[in-house]
Amino acid sequence: MNRSPDYQGIVSDRDILITVITNIIGVLTLTSPRVVAEVTNSSDGWITVLLGGIIASLCGWFIAKIASSFPNQSFLTYTSYLLSKPVAIVMTLIFSLQFFMTTVFYVRELAALSHQYLFDHTPQEIISLTFLFVVIYAVSGSQAGIFRLNVLFFPILVVGLFLVIFLSIGLIDWEGFLPLFQTDFEGYLKGTYFSVVNMLGFAIVFFYIGLVKNPRNTPKMTAYGVLVTMGFNLVIYLVCVGVFGNTTMRNMFFPTFDLSRTVEIPGGFFERFDAFLFLFWTIIFFTTATMALDVTVMTLRMVFRNFKKINAVIMLSPIIYFTSMVPKSYLDVVSFNRLLGHFTIIYFLLVTILLGIAFKIKGGNSSE
Amino acid sequence: MNKLNAMLILVMCTLILAACWDQIEIEERAFIFGMAIDAADKTEVKLTQQLVVPENMATVAANAGGGGKAYRNLSSTGKTIYEINLDLAKQASRSIDSTHLGVILVSEDIMKQPGRFKEHFDVFFREKRMRRGIKLAVTNGLAEDLLYVEAEHEKIPAEYIKNLLENKKRLDVTDLVRIGDIDEKLYEETSFPLPYLKKISSTVIDYEGIAIYNGKEERMVGVLKGDDAKALSYIRGLKNNGSINTEIDGGPMTIEILTIKRKITLTNNDPNNLQFSIKIQIKGAIADQSGWENLKEYEVLNKFYKKTSEKIEEMVKNTINKLQNDFQTDAMGLGEYLNRYYPKIWKEVQDEWDNGKNYFSKSDIDCEVKIVIEEPGSINKTTSK
After folding, report:
1. Is B122 an 8 Å CB contact of chain A?
2. Domains and CATH numbers, chain B
3. CB distance from A269 to chain B under 8 Å?
4. Mean pLDDT in chain A?
5. Residue in B5, B14, B16, B131 to test binding to A, most A beta-carbons within 10 Å
6. Residues in chain B, pLDDT under 70
7. Confidence (pTM)
8. pLDDT in tens, A26-42
9. Any idea which fold A13-362 has?
10. Where in the cell (chain B) (predicted)?
């Protein structure tokens, strides 16, 4: 691989932990309480969020284990070793496509959301473009910069989530959690499925572990990262159920965002708190979109080695922009996201299982 | 080449960053604080909006002589609230901003026509600028009249009404005033109580009672007034303070209520003959007595307990009777209780809970009041008799 000298070992275990958290918390955090509530009754969704989180963290641990058995090797290199070169190339390219689509979705969703809650007249096209420019700027530099940004934004993210949660606690109807355990088996199954889809963001460790200098603890860190995120999701879900109740929540498009609209802080200036939280959500979208684009570029460059990074970014960005403008109505965006979710989880499981089996047979190769 | 790139980027920046499409200077915004919805005719509604006039809000000493009203009421009629709102924006000659909307008043007239309240209320949940903390009240007579009531201490009538609805020192009020709470009830078609306001004079508005809204019939079925309204608060376990008056040995007595706790249990779970028992526990303090009762005696205290709990029981029974027979509407939250604790029974009865077969009216509701007086006040008695 032609790597620049600073390519290896730029990421620490702590960075992986934070990156996993910031990558999972994204647009889906806004909608997931609703998606879970749609298939469960009353407040039973907490079980599915918990189960989903545990499954996701096991998966995360497992793929990080595989990836970290090949320290400082790229995804393409170790999958070629495990599953032969042509398979590895196809796999990598499908991942590029998937992360490309994720970026597209984020670029569009940010515009749609800010249009829904903030702006009346500003065209979505302009909001998307501006957002995309910032994402491109972050991606076109060194990857170390992205990790720095993640670490930098992490406290903001935590503070923002805590604000959403704590300010709403007073509005919770504690009896609203009853009755317990009213969902049938199918509901739990579906709910768990959606919870896992919601947390698939940890799949980035497939690609980023290659950058960790000494990835002995990385699997553990990945699992912790997923578990921490699951904790946030669980609390957000419970607060949403407590404040809105199951039926109202099914009826809302972005329950987590509506939570911040429900909060009222006395005093004129902060009476409307949602505008400030929008800032925080934008940052969250930004980190996820940045990483998605970065992985797209990274996977593409694994296959097409002679591509310069900046050229790849500049070639991709107009395609991202135009693709993001393809969906016309909000429903198109929603179905696009649903398809992307299904695709992501199926493909992810396929890759994990294939790699897992091959890894069992061939074993790791720590010294190339 | 680099310079050219930099130039290009700068040019792009000016394009993107120069103007904000949604920029509206704060001076050009007209903030709505209150809205009143009245029926104009069978299909159209009349919407009155109370806009703030910020110039007249500040109380500057030098400005003592001048200064007009701090509010401006505009109204128009139309088919939907949103459409009227756009119409009013033209009249206002400013851009109307509903982000600080605090109160929505709906006239009795609209509430009593089946389905009308619901069909006009969608916009308040959907519109992005609406908060779920907006307060909702039903008015006796025209709703817009209340937006003209100028209390001496508040410059804006809508603010006055909002504070009135937030009052926690009385019992003949409801706990449900936020539209966020009502969203859920409307969606699930459960019945609920709403504050019922009346214009008393040109400077005073007060609660007339509690309006009862039937979720299945989608209309307001009646009003509980006075003691009935208070009794509903006991049943719902309102977290307010209040008072209760009785007579003891021919003299008046008032007990200040500190906390109310309510507990419902289901004693018979045959859907056709549900039996509920409501236990109400009240903690109170003696606020006022005839003057000659010796509060140091247990005997006297027990007499107080007995009298007040009898009085409350009577009030509560009266109200239950009214809700079951006159209104046939469960505003007590029994359906909610069943849903939460006995989901299986609720599934059987929920479709005809307070309409049709009306399981609610058929059920037996028993109530028991327990009262504890925690504080006697500073003195024992006023006369030494």
Report:
1. no
2. 28-224 (no CATH), 226-377 (3.30.300.210)
3. no
4. 85
5. B131
6. 1, 15-19, 58-67, 385
7. 0.85
8. 888 888 889 888 888 88
9. Amino acid/polyamine transporter I (1.20.1740)
10. Membrane
